[in-house]
C-alpha cells in the first residue's frame, strides 16, 4: 500500500497542494499534520501513518523537509520505517529507500534540510541583534518583578516565601538575591 504524509508548519497554511500531489502519486490514504517540522514530538499524524503502515508498504512525502528538518529526527523516522519494513519515497526528489542510490540521496537531503534550519536560526538571531542595536527590539517583558523580590528580601522575607507569594521558582529568587549581594560587594569596593 502507498501511504501519504503531508505537513505544513502552521494552521493558517493549507496542505491541499501536497495532498493532491500525494494522491496523484497513488497514495491510497494521506495523513496530515499542521505542526513544525523541527521536532517529531506532537506530530500525531506522522505517528499514525507509521503505525498504520505494514511490512512492504511505502510512505510517500512530497519533499524530505515535510518529513523532518534535522538529521537526528530523519534518522529516527527512517529507523522506525526500516524496522517495520516500510520504504520511504518522495514525489519531488529522487528518494526511494528501497534503492541504495535513494538512501544516499536521502541522507544528503537531510543534511541540507538541517543546514537550512540552522541558517534560518542564524539569520533570525542576526536580525534580533540588529534590531537591539537600533533600539527597536526590547525582548520579551520580564516575567519577574525584580524590584518586588529585592524589596521583600530587604524586608527579611525568606526566599521560599517570596517564591510562593510571587508564583516564581525559589531558584529565581536565589539568583536575584545573589545578584543583589554581588552588586553590593562591587559598590562597597568602589
TrEMBL record:
<dbReference type="GO" id="GO:0003677">
    <property type="term" value="F:DNA binding"/>
</dbReference>
<dbReference type="InterPro" id="IPR006119">
    <property type="entry name" value="Resolv_N"/>
</dbReference>
<feature type="domain" description="Resolvase/invertase-type recombinase catalytic">
    <location>
        <begin position="1"/>
        <end position="135"/>
    </location>
</feature>
<protein>
    <submittedName>
        <fullName>DNA invertase gene rlgA</fullName>
    </submittedName>
</protein>
<keyword id="KW-0238">DNA-binding</keyword>
<dbReference type="InterPro" id="IPR036162">
    <property type="entry name" value="Resolvase-like_N_sf"/>
</dbReference>
<dbReference type="GO" id="GO:0000150">
    <property type="term" value="F:DNA strand exchange activity"/>
</dbReference>
<keyword id="KW-0229">DNA integration</keyword>
<dbReference type="Pfam" id="PF02796">
    <property type="entry name" value="HTH_7"/>
</dbReference>
<keyword id="KW-0233">DNA recombination</keyword>
<dbReference type="Pfam" id="PF00239">
    <property type="entry name" value="Resolvase"/>
</dbReference>
<dbReference type="InterPro" id="IPR006118">
    <property type="entry name" value="Recombinase_CS"/>
</dbReference>
<comment type="similarity">
    <text>Belongs to the site-specific recombinase resolvase family.</text>
</comment>
<keyword id="KW-0230">DNA invertase</keyword>
<feature type="active site" description="O-(5'-phospho-DNA)-serine intermediate">
    <location>
        <position position="9"/>
    </location>
</feature>
<dbReference type="InterPro" id="IPR006120">
    <property type="entry name" value="Resolvase_HTH_dom"/>
</dbReference>
<dbReference type="InterPro" id="IPR050639">
    <property type="entry name" value="SSR_resolvase"/>
</dbReference>
<dbReference type="InterPro" id="IPR009057">
    <property type="entry name" value="Homeodomain-like_sf"/>
</dbReference>
<dbReference type="GO" id="GO:0015074">
    <property type="term" value="P:DNA integration"/>
</dbReference>
Amino acid at each position: 500500500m502507498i501511504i501519504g504524509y503531508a505537513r505544513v508548519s502552521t494552521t493558517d497554511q493549507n496542505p491541499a497542494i501536497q495532498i493532491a500531489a500525494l494522491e496523484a502519486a497513488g497514495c491510497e490514504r494521506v495523513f496530515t499534520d499542521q505542526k513544525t517540522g523541527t521536532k517529531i514530538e506532537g506530530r500525531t499524524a506522522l505517528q499514525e501513518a507509521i503505525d498504520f503502515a505494514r511490512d512492504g508498504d511505502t510512505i510517500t512525502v512530497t519533499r524530505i523537509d515535510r518529513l523532518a528538518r534535522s538529521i537526528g529526527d530523519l534518522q529516527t523516522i527512517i529507523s522506525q520505517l526500516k524496522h517495520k519494513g516500510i520504504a520511504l519515497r518522495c514525489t519531488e526528489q529522487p528518494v526511494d529507500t528501497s534503492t541504495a542510490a535513494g538512501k544516499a540521496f536521502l541522507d544528503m537531503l537531510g543534511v541540507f534540510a538541517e543546514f537550512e534550519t540552522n541558517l534560518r536560526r542564524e539569520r533570525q538571531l542576526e536580525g534580533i541583534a540588529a534590531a537591539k542595536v537600533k533600539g527597536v527590539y526590547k525582548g520579551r517583558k520580564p516575567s519577574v518583578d525584580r524590584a518586588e523580590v529585592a524589596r521583600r528580601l530587604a524586608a527579611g522575607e525568606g526566599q521560599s516565601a517570596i517564591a510562593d507569594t510571587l508564583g516564581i521558582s525559589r531558584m529565581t529568587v536565589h539568583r536575584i538575591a545573589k545578584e543583589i549581594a554581588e552588586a553590593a560587594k562591587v559598590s562597597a569596593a568602589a
